[in-house]
Each structure stands twice: as structure tokens, then as C-alpha cells.
Amino acid sequence: MTPAEAARILGLSSSATPEEVRIAYRSQIRTHHPDRAGAASSGRAASIVEAYRVLTEAGPSRPEEAPAGAPTATSGPVPPRTSTDDLVYGAPAVGRIDADTLALGAPADESFRWLLDAAHDVGEITYVDRSMPIMEVLCRFEGEPATSLLLTLQGRGERTEVFCTVESIEARPAPPTSAVVDLLELALHRRRSPPPPPDPAPSA
């Protein structure tokens, strides 16, 4: 796919800025994600992901970064976590790019695995497509409507951007995107290193 073809797929001009590319990608993937638009849109969604990869690789921002390949595995449901006793540590550094985007300091395949694990703290994983890669998490917060958290990943060499979309699946408005992403970010931070041991009880 050429940059001109990629720009056309995202509905952009060839002179689009990196920020315009990013906004167009997020808008398009939200609309054409197979879980929202149906299985027939899988090809379109894959084209959108590839177009974004091509434009970010060719763009002037971050020229030193090369997009990583998407994780490979089959799609399928992820079993719910039944205990926190098996929590694994060593997650990559995580930072906030903006209200709805995280950055993980690891390639896309590794970041995807950590997100799968951390998402169990936020809700129930209801959809996974490792070929794009995308996952959806059904979140239920006290006093809030059932909420869909859609995560799409874009590898950039040794770093991965995670775009987060939050939508209510009830007739009430969804909670703020930033608040839901805060919970996911916290879940990732919890996996960076184990908590310190409790202080020993003073002897009598």
C-alpha cells in the first residue's frame, strides 16, 4: 500500500499532518470495527489499520520509529480471571499521551499480552482480534451504565500506542473516557513490580 492509497482510505489529503492521520484513524476504526459494523467489515478494518501504519511510517513525526508487526494468533474469547494470586509482574513502562491514549514501552505483541492481563481488572474481555490487534472489554462500574472499552494498538518499534474508545451500551451516557483509561493505566502500573512486603509486627 502506498502513502497516497493509505491517505485515500483514511479520507485524508497527501499533506495531512500526523495529528490529522491519528484522528482519522481513530474515527474510522471506531466506525468499521467488526464488533460494531459486523463481520463483513473485517477487511475494511484491516485496511484502515494498514493505512495508519503506512502513513505513520512515512510521516515526518518520529522518523526514528518503525512500526512493529501486529501480534499473530487466532481470535477468540478470553477466560475471566478468577483470582489475583497469579498476578504476573514485569509489565513495561506505561504513560499517558492524552485522555484516550496510552503508550507502553514494549513492542506491540508484548504490549497486547500485558493489556489482556490488565483488562481483567477493568472488566470482562468480550472480543479479541490479535491480527489487527483489537480487544473489547465490557466494564460495569457502580452507578454507571454497562460500558464498552475498545482498545486498538499501533506498534512503533519498541513502543506501542493504545487508543481507547468508551461507549455506553445502555440508554445512559458512558462514564468519561479518561476515567476508564485511568483504571486501565492503574492496572498496568500494578503489574510493573510487586508491592513491598508488609512491615513486620513489633515484638512484645
Total helical elements: 6
Q: Biggest β-sheet, characterized?
A: 6 strands, antiparallel
- State the share of residues found in helices, binned by percent: 25-40%
Helix and strand pattern? HHHHEEHEEEEH
Estimated radius of gyration: 18 Å
Query: What portion of the residues fall into strands of 2 or more residues?
Result: 15-25%
Count of DSSP strands:
6
Could you name the ranges where pLDDT drops below 50 across 5 or more consecutive residues?
61-85
Strand order of the largest sheet: 1-2-6-5-4-3
Structural class by SSE content? alpha+beta
Tell me, rounded to a whole number, the average pLDDT: 79
What global shape is seen?
Answer: globular
Distance between the termini: 73 Å
Structure in words:
It is a single chain. Helices cover 35% and strands 20% of the residues. With 204 residues, it is α+β, with helices and mostly antiparallel strands. A 6-stranded antiparallel beta sheet has the order 1-2-6-5-4-3, with helices on both faces. A hairpin with a 4-residue loop joins strand 3 and strand 4 (134-139).
List the helices and strands and how they pair.
Blueprint: H1 3-9, H2 18-32, H3 34-37, H4 42-58, E1 94-98, E2 101-104, H5 108-122, E3 124-129, E4 134-139, E5 147-156, E6 159-168, H6 177-190
Provide key terms for this protein.
about 200 residues, alpha+beta, six-stranded antiparallel β-sheet, globular
Short summary:
This protein has 204 residues and is an alpha+beta fold. Helices cover 35% and strands 20% of the residues. Strand 3 (124-129) and strand 4 (134-139) form a beta hairpin.
